[in-house]
């Protein structure tokens, strides 16, 4: 039985090594030792010390190697086990909440977790969650080689087989379109005025979405090469033949202006049209009455807006909606506002005026106002003060003594 100790990276062993014929005293790390063999024809042999050094790896090199190895791989058995545990936990949670496990949805799970484990943490990712394993564990590529360790795909050794396979497919589509164009020329039926793929209301997949689709990391240059190749396909006269293929890499944009609610015009006793609207920004709340056939008078809280707002920027905020639709001087505006500071009050009044103008403009101008941001409320609020600081960001003055 040999024992040892490691000193300064050198491993020293000592003890006895037992054999059927002899007992050998062993020492590594010391001077040469004579060992007797009573049952052998020779008398002794010299054992030279051989220091055994440990291979030490720094923490930075270890982290670098770990990052190069890529994300942790999860086996199918592991994922199946996690899914089974999730289903069991979901049934237990449904029973605790008095719900039917068969109709217990993910939304019900989220509400139950928030009720049972209330958390005041600002970062939502730090709060307790219970999600399906497919949402927790990242997607990963399947095994790409057979029992003999021979890769299935001919582009395996490129390091990005999914990406280069996709580029290969796109180029094959381009060649197929060119062959079709040649056939049409030979028949005398070629024309450049063919049906084009409609890209209205859609966009290309962004780089992160492409990586998720390919289950591979790609560089910005790789992404730009793919987009350029797809644009080349779209520019071809008969590119519409591959419309189904192109749409796989596009996403529909959400329609923002789903019919803005426009209040009908109201009329006073003299038959003058007017509209009323509200607006807010931070803690400021504003209410506006917009009267047609006016002289351009604007009063805020009973005072002329030039007297109420001393800062030029606040006055410009107030007038911008009228200037945008080219209706300066047409309306008389009566407004009231309270709360917050002068800048927030100006923003609240601007939103209220923009909403009141909707009753006087056409649908096309409504869309232009929406695109200009006049109909979107500013969601920003005052940042909270932090403990141990003067304010939200400002720190106390540091003094050495």
From TrEMBL:
User: Main location per UniProt?
Assistant: mitochondrion
Recite the UniProt keywords alphabetically: Mitochondrion, Ribonucleoprotein, Ribosomal protein, Signal, Transit peptide
**InterPro entries referenced in this protein's UniProt entry, alphabetically:** Ribosomal_Su5_D2-typ_SF, Ribosomal_uS9, Ribsml_uS5_D2-typ_fold_subgr
List localization entries.
Mitochondrion
Gene Ontology MF terms: RNA binding; structural constituent of ribosome
In the record, the note on similarity to other proteins reads:
Belongs to the universal ribosomal protein uS9 family.
Looking up PANTHER family in the UniProt record yields:
RIBOSOMAL PROTEIN S9 (PTHR21569), SMALL RIBOSOMAL SUBUNIT PROTEIN US9M (PTHR21569:SF1)
Name this protein carries in UniProt: Small ribosomal subunit protein uS9m
Q: What is the lineage of its organism?
A: Eukaryota, Metazoa, Chordata, Craniata, Vertebrata
């Amino acid at each position: 039985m040999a024992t040892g100790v490691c000193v300064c990276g050198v491993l020293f062993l000592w003890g006895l090594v037992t054999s059927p014929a002899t007992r050998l005293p062993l020492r590594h790390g010391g001077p040469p030792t004579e060992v007797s063999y009573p049952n052998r024809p020779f008398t002794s042999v010299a054992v030279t010390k051989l220091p055994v050094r440990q291979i030490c790896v720094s923490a930075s090199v270890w982290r670098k190697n770990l990052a190069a190895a890529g994300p942790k791989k999860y086996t199918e058995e592991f994922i199946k086990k996690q899914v089974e545990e999730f289903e069991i936990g979901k049934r237990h949670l449904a029973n605790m909440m008095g719900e039917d496990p068969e109709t217990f949805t993910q939304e019900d799970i989220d509400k139950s977790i928030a009720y049972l484990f209330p958390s005041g943490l600002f970062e939502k990712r730090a709060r307790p969650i219970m999600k399906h394993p497919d949402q927790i564990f990242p997607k990963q590529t399947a095994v790409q080689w057979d029992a003999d360790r021979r890769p299935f795909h001919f582009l395996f050794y490129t390091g990005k087989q999914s990406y280069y396979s996709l580029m290969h497919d796109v180029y094959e589509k381009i060649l197929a379109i060119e062959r079709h164009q040649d056939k049409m020329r030979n028949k005398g039926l070629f024309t450049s005025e063919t049906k084009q793929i409609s890209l209205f209301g859609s966009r290309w997949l962004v780089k992160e979405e492409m990586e998720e689709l390919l289950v591979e990391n790609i560089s910005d240059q790789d992404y730009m090469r793919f987009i350029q190749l797809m644009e080349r396909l779209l520019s071809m006269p008969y590119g519409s033949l591959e419309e189904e293929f192109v749409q796989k890499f596009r996403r529909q944009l959400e329609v923002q202006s789903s019919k803005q609610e426009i209040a009908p015009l109201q009329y006073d006793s003299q038959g003058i049209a007017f509209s009323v609207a509200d607006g807010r920004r931070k803690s400021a709340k504003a209410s506006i009455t917009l009267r047609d056939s006016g002289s351009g008078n604007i009063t805020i809280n009973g005072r002329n807006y030039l007297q109420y707002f001393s800062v030029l920027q606040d006055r410009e905020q107030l007038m911008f909606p009228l200037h945008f639709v080219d209706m300066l001087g047409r309306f008389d505006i009566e407004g009231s506002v309270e709360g917050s500071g002068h800048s927030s009050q100006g923003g609240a009044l601007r939103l209220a005026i923009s909403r009141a103008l909707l009753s006087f403009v056409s649908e096309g101008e409504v869309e232009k106002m929406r695109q200009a941001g006049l109909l979107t409320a500013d969601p920003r609020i005052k940042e909270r003060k932090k403990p141990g600081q003067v304010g939200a960001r400002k720190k106390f003055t540091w003094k050495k003594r």
